[in-house]
Sequence to fold (142 residues):
Amino acid sequence: MEREKIDAALKEHVVPVLRSMGFKGSFPHFRRNTGQQIDLLTFQFDKHGGGFVIEVAVSPTEGVTLHWGEQIPAAKVVATHLHPTKRIRLGAAMEGDHWFRYDNKGTRTTRFEDTAREVLPYLSAEATDHWAKGPLCDNSTS
Fold:
């Protein structure tokens, strides 16, 4: 029930912003092909509920090759296909960890919307800065 509510809040408040930035894909995976690179964003949810992380990455336009040799084409690549050292978690300072939590906001009826809105500044600052750096030199995940 709570997962459905946070999904709805993210789809209402965050996904339209991603669309306005040129992202395509379906929740929870989004990609934007700029012609020079593919900007990636993925929501990952706490398996016990109550929170989520957002990972962003940059893929070369040809996609990526997983460490066992499988080729992931540009149209299918998601942030989690890239090695953890080639992606960042929004809000995580210095390779740390950051969770957007909605389980610690009490029983307020706006806690899902409040948590979704917390994401927005990270899109316009940290995520945009990361995507501006471009893809790394190779297209492998290891």
Observations:
- The mean pLDDT is 90.
- The chain has one domain: 2-132.
- DSSP finds three helices and eight strands in the chain.
- Helices lie at 2-13, 15-20, 111-132.
